[in-house]
Amino acid sequence: MDKVSRLSVGIPMLSVVTWRWGSVYGVEFINKMRSMLSRHLRLPHLLYCITDDPTGLDEGIIPIPIWPANGLGRCRRLRIFDEKVGNIFGERILQLDIDCVIVGDITPLVDRAEPLVMWRSVPAVRYIKNLQKLEPNAEDGIGPYNTSMLLMNAGVFPELWSDYTKDPDKVETAAKKAGLWISLYSSSATNVHPLPDRDDDQAVISLYAKPLNPPVWLEKDGVYKWGRRGFADRTKLPENARIVFFNGSLPGNRLGNKACEVPDWIKEHWR
Fold it and tell me: What are phi and psi for residue 113, nearest 5 degrees?
């Protein structure tokens, strides 16, 4: 369905919501996001940036002042589930982390009507808590939902934000007991570690989303994490890739503490 026909039947404008605060990511991450969306999202949309510094944002990007952390750290992003966000962004929201490269048409990923769709970046191994060991994990196997990319109706989880702000320790404890407060980055047991308190919103959202079993995006849909599973060769873009996410910013800026040459596919698409 093209832009004109969607608007004529009253389908709500899609609000793409991004976040930027602090000094790790430069304003170019937001401006290049706008450019990539203009090439690869064939739906009427507005781009919002929740930020502590709107300086340098390109025209057409709508800045939203970020709220105080109030001790919540990265988990303040959970406010996207506040039932009142519809007053800011409208009915339909696509949240994207800015440490990504859009390499193909993402319209088929987001032109859908379900109230909630999430990305699951499923690790190649899973941690068996009661046995305290790792075992192989299928692409559609055990793994947390990832807030780097989610499509939602405003207010889809009206209780999440209120529950968390009322008693974050209670919610985090529940996430830990459910085995959702663990980060897996490789098959090495030494890299299985608990996530810092107040620093992983995906564990909390997984706690609320898991009972609903929402539809998900996986690698087979073209949603990848760089260096993981089907993207083990970081220099070669998978044929079906549409969008690629990173742990941290892009090579040439910061990738953990490791220097990394910028692959040609990033040079081609991150602009």
Answer: -110, -5
Q: How far is CA 220 from CA 87, 101, 121, 145, 238, in A?
A: 35, 17, 11, 16, 10
The pLDDT value given to residue 125: 74
**Cα(269)–Cα(271) distance, rounded to whole angstroms?**
6
pLDDT score recorded for residue 11? 60
**Residue 8 pLDDT:** 36
Task: Give 166's contacts (C-beta < 8 A, 6+ positions apart).
Answer: none
Q: What CATH code is assigned to 3-269?
A: 3.90.550.10
Q: Domain coordinates of the chain in residue numbers? A: 3-269
| H or E stretch covering 63 | strand 61-65
Rounded average pLDDT over 20-40: 94
pTM: 0.88
Nearest-angstrom CA–CA distance, 187 and 248: 20
Task: Give the separation between CA 112 and CA 43, rounded to whole angstroms.
Answer: 11
Distances (CA, A) of 3 to 45, 153, 248, 262: 10, 19, 34, 35
